[in-house]
Amino acid sequence: MARIGLLSMSDGRAFVHNDVSDFIAAGAAALAGALREAGHEVVTAEIVWTNELATSQARWLADQRVDLTIFHYAVWAFPHFTMLAAAATPGPLLLLGGLDPVQPGMVGMLAGGGALDQIGRRHTRAWGDIADPATRERILVRVHAAAATESLRGSTFGRIGGRPMGMYTAVANTDQWMRTFGIDVEEIDQWEIVRRSETVDAGRVTQARLWLEKSSAGVHYNGTSLTPELLERQIRSYYAMRELIDEWNLDFSGIKGQPELTNHFATMDIAEAFLNDPYDWEGPKPTHVTSTESDMDAALTMQLLKGLSGTPVLFADVRHYHADKDVWDLCNSGQHATWFAARSDDPLENLAKTHFYPEVFFFPAGGAAVHHIAAPGSFTLARLTRLDGRYRMQVMRGEFESYDAATNEEMARMSTFEWPHAFARLHVEAGDFLNRFGANHIHAIPGEYVAELRAVCDLLGIDYDGFGDAA
């Protein structure tokens, strides 16, 4: 849900304003009603017809901490009202012009927008009646993008550990993050997970283990790299992370894991999967975006995608290309939330398709790997990457596919069977993808969000880089 400010502009001549004010108010009411019907909160200011109101009402809306301010032009409006209001409005702007043939709202929007162009004030425009689906969609795309981007500002990312395994693409400049996104980074040592895990209540841990054993498709103990004790150590790590999140007020986070924890303590697969899930064994909870390998750009991408979709976000390596099927295996140790197994609101439906296998030789400390095949459907895939120090959002469309059990297993065993897999048919030629994509990690949400990601890039002042039919 977004919080939207609505500021309607009028003619600066009193006798004209008095004549058109009811017309403006009716248009504003219809706009506000449509936005509220779509699930958003709308804060409406007084109609602006003097320079004093332009400034005072814009300042009042700014005080309401709105995600997006809409300047509404149902009639001709003096352009300096737009300039004064914009000067008092720090956040994203959308200019909406009416197309009524009698009242020149479109003219008012063009005059105000042109003035903003002259001073370099970023904004976007929409036009038409809110009852028109095309107009409504254009507005809602910007609303969703503004809510996602503005939610970043003032947030804190918790980086648990440092750079993993020499990965440049996992580490970002904290100054750049604050300047571009408004995000602070809190550095926390991985020892905090080890230390805090020892103090977790044993009863909670045992109940969690029993729930996983009962609810999942199987916990496949082998007596060495996966034992009840190791699984409980992973569960304790999850509780340690929840404690760190609450204590440090972390909005999203990343765990280094490799190689220290995965060599000497336990893998973070359970913690990462269930932090990204909208539930755990104790019931529903807010999803907390957590990236493996403390990948900062991964977590930031995921936080944006979660803000757009309201769903968990997939994290995966681009692990293998099945050239015979033109399908990619998106696979990474434990990082897929169990929600992707069935994409159900009922955790038991997802867990029924999820196995917990002993970890593989990459991680000698052992523990459970979270295995499932992602449920089929259409997805938007994206990743924030950097080209010569400048951020870009790389975007593509695709479908996740699932096959018969034998084919799924055969394909999964071609990479690392024990980990979760999403078999993705991307709308991009394989050579183009491999030549241009700027990371080994990729992220996905179900549904169509290409237009919203274009708007996100515009609002953040970063580059949009689309692949295939998302170009």
UniProtKB/TrEMBL annotation:
Keywords: Carbohydrate metabolism, Cytoplasm, Fucose metabolism, Isomerase, Manganese, Metal-binding
L-fucose isomerase N-terminal-1 domain mapped to chain residues: 2-154
Domain L-fucose isomerase C-terminal: residue ranges: 330-465
Keyword Calcium: no
InterPro entries, sorted: Fuc/Ara_isomerase_C (IPR004216), Fuc_iso_dom3_sf (IPR038393), Fuc_isomerase_C (IPR015888), Fucose_iso_dom1_sf (IPR038391), Fucose_iso_N1 (IPR012888), Fucose_isomerase (IPR005763), Fucose_isomerase_dom2_sf (IPR038392), Fucose_isomerase_N/cen_sf (IPR009015)
GO molecular function term, any single one: isomerase activity
Cleavable signal peptide: none
Keyword Isomerase: yes
Ranges of residues in domain L-fucose isomerase N-terminal-2: 252-306
Protein name: FucIase
Species: Nocardia albiluteola
